Amino acid sequence: MSVRDNIRESLYAFIKLEGSKVAFADKVGVTKSAVTNWTNGNNAPDIETIAKISNMYDVPLSDILEGRVTSDDVKEPCTRWVRVPMYGSIAAGKPIEMAVVDGEMSIPIEMHRKYPRSFLLRVEGESMNKRLPNGSLALINPTKDVIDGHAYAVAVNGYDATIKRVKKYENGLELSPDSTDPTIKPKVYDFGDASTETVTVIGEVVWCVYPFDYEV
């Protein structure tokens, strides 16, 4: 079966627990027509909604995507999730202007307890595709500290944003891709050069959600 079919099969278990599509829709915060479209196979919930359902019912996201959820697996909705701000996009490639907050999404409460100031950014591009496929949601923990080789969201020129692996030098930074594309190269910013663009570390990537159609 396709991923969409797997999701549809999993949804029936949640609907059975709630007693109706209307009750399930109210619990998730969507319309009944949206749920009907999902169960009819017309479309599928987006990854943010799937992650929310996963957290609400304490069911692994992978089980939902693989159609392995049964009514025996589903318990009453729990509160093991917390909503955090979500920014529209952040480039994992050529830096683009960072978008304004365009919504919220639920993350596991364990992650929120560990990173209480964290927020989500959507990844676009292929320069980090070994770890962050295009369309992923990256959880960013605000920090100025850099551990060489870790992935960070950085601002270039104060307003552009990108995700790269960062290496710190005495007077500069190197931003490196983690990509299957050999044409995407590292870039070194020498702060001793007056013409060098300003680079500011926004925060470290500490967790992510892959797109629901991503193939491992």
From TrEMBL:
Highest taxon in the source lineage: Bacteria
InterPro entries (UniProt xref): Cro/C1-type_HTH, Lambda_DNA-bd_dom_sf, LexA-like, LexA/Signal_pep-like_sf, Peptidase_S24_S26A/B/C
Keyword match Transcription: yes
Keywords: DNA-binding, Transcription, Transcription regulation
Entries under CDD domains matching the protein: HTH_XRE, S24_LexA-like
GO molecular function: DNA binding
Signal peptide start and end residues: none
Keyword Transcription regulation annotated: yes
Ranges of residues in domain HTH cro/C1-type: 23-64
Protein's UniProt name: XRE family transcriptional regulator
Organism: uncultured bacterium Contig1770
